[in-house]
Specification:
The chain is of the alpha/beta class. It has 5 helices and 9 strands. It starts with a strand and ends with a helix.
């Protein structure tokens, strides 16, 4: 699995430092206000888990499912499913947490849908931001790292369901795509 990685972009230590920084920003933004972290499955589960353990104020946790990559390397149509219940959304302050902000289509659609379902406020927090790929006008309120236009895996990010368990973020070798 490690042989499939062209280079490491963010080490485990760098990742934890970035999460500490973002957790402090989120804590400052939500101190004194109730809020719910809505983790976008599956990619953000590792990031969201580490993030919420570093936020020392009360919060709730919910999940939503969205997919746009399937088993490929190019973003396709966004499929939204598995939304939190109405009582987890209506009138609540939500922090939508995702692994990567790429084209912006997924987060933009989730953002709009959560507001449509009655959220009082929706903010976004992403582990990685890839602004050169943006196809719609969407900016994250909080982000750990900006990344260049590479296909990245590790720390929750995958290719065809694999590599999520790597403790770092790396650029995937093109040869790994060719094998599939």
């Amino acid at each position: 699995m490690h042989d499939d990685i062209e280079r490491v972009l963010f080490s485990e230590a760098q990742i934890l430092s970035g999460i500490d920084r973002v957790a402090a920003e989120v804590t400052e933004a939500y101190t004194g206000r109730g809020f719910t972290v809505v983790s976008v499955l599956k990619g953000s589960c590792v990031f969201a888990s580490d993030l919420i353990r570093r936020i020392p104020i009360p919060l709730e946790l919910a999940f939503v499912s969205a997919s746009s990559y399937g088993d490929g390397t190019e973003s396709g149509p966004v499929q939204l499913s598995f939304f939190p219940t109405g009582q987890e959304i209506e009138g609540r302050n939500l922090l939508l947490v995702d692994d990567i902000l790429d084209t912006g289509r997924t987060l933009s659609q989730l953002f709009a849908e959560l507001l449509k379902r009655g959220a009082a406020e929706v903010r976004s927090c992403v582990f990685l931001d890839k602004p050169t790929r943006r196809a719609v006008d969407f900016q994250a309120d909080f982000r750990c790292f900006e990344v260049e236009d590479l296909f990245v895996v590790g720390y929750g990010l995958d290719y065809a369901g694999r590599y999520r368990n790597l403790p770092f973020v790396g650029a995937l070798h093109r040869a790994a795509f060719a094998r599939d």
